[in-house]
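Hi R.,

Here's the chain you asked about this morning:
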Amino acid sequence: MLGKKLVTAQKRGDTRALFLGLGMVACSVLMYFFIGVTIVPKYKKSIWTEESTCNLTKATIKKKIHCIFNEDAGEENLFRYPCLEVRVNLTTLGEVVMLYETEDTWTRNPKCSYIPGNLENAGEVQKNVNTIKGNFRKTRIFSCFYDPSRAEPSVIFTRLYTPAGFVFTLIWPTLMMTGGILIITLVKINQYLSVFAASQYIRGV
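And the predicted structure, written out as tokens:
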């Protein structure tokens, strides 16, 4: 009687562990899918891969020009803020080009070098843009990234989508996938050993 109870409890534990492993594998697959649909395209579009030195040539705020996130945006989607335009000399090639803060800045609004994070307070936005302009004028010489193929002439100040960042993004789903497969494997091994032990016991009897 006790033996039957132990066998039943073991089967229940194996079933729960198996479902846990399968759930972890399923979640990791969904995470891989999400990464492939939303994040991978951004890394593919990050063509500014070579690092160089940029020398500031001009940093101006176009107060009379309102910036929008895209040309097709409706009136309800217009976000108006001072447009900071930064021009730099790319020392590697000796070209004067437009500088953007990140890849997303270039994607969201190619007219402006910087997009403020909070657009609700006009005073804070103006102060923020002035601070960024002042920082560039103080530093003047800084590192930047450019497209080595020169398909895109502009440069960016900071890379958001680096190879190291992409690898870091894959760590969690990979660990979950590995853990799930490991659990399933251990359950299968345990089941095999149980059947093998049972068969040996029956032969001995």
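The chain has a mean pLDDT of 84.

Let me know if you need anything else.
M.
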